[in-house]
Design a protein that fits this description.
single chain; 149 residues; alpha+beta; Immunoglobulin-like; 2 domains; 4-stranded antiparallel sheet; 1 helix; 9 strands; elongated
Length: 149
Amino acid sequence: MSFSDPGTGENYSTQRIFALNSFNFIAAHQFLIPRAVNYSAGMINYFFRGKIDLVEDDDNPGNYFLKNLGNEPMTGTFALYYDYDDASAGTVNNRKLLISWDKTVPANDRVSVGTIPFPSDPAPKNPDEFMLDRKRERSSERAPSRARW
């Protein structure tokens, strides 16, 4: 078998035929897909790397702390949301702001936020599920941090 290189016009001859088939793709998938998943996970971790939590004060029940689980201080508006369903409007999974705080939480530390009112109007879809969100204030920080419990 011979073929001509369209770029140079040179002629080549070989006894082998080079082609891709399903075996090539299966072999490539075994290492390409895990690499793509790891790359994607790394990008998500980079942009959403802040780790925050809302924990109850063991010494003073009913009071809560914002807990920074990361190695960098966090400054911004921390907001607590909950989901509710609005049967009259026929909508589901609506989100409502419950309370927010402007705080700075040092790295690997916590800051008191006091008591948190229980949502009643509208009633939460799942009374034990809330979402804590932080909107950053300094441009040197890279991304918002979210915690869900």
